[in-house]
Amino acid sequence: MEPAAEFVKSWMKLSKDWQTQMEAEMAPQLTGGQLQVLELLQANEPMKPSELLPHLETTPAAVTTLLDRMERNGLVKRTRDENDRRIVWISTTDFGHTERERGLRIRSDIVNRSLDRLSAHNRQLLVYLIGKVSGTRDKKAASHAEEPRAIKATS
Question: Global pTM?
Answer without folding.
Answer: 0.76
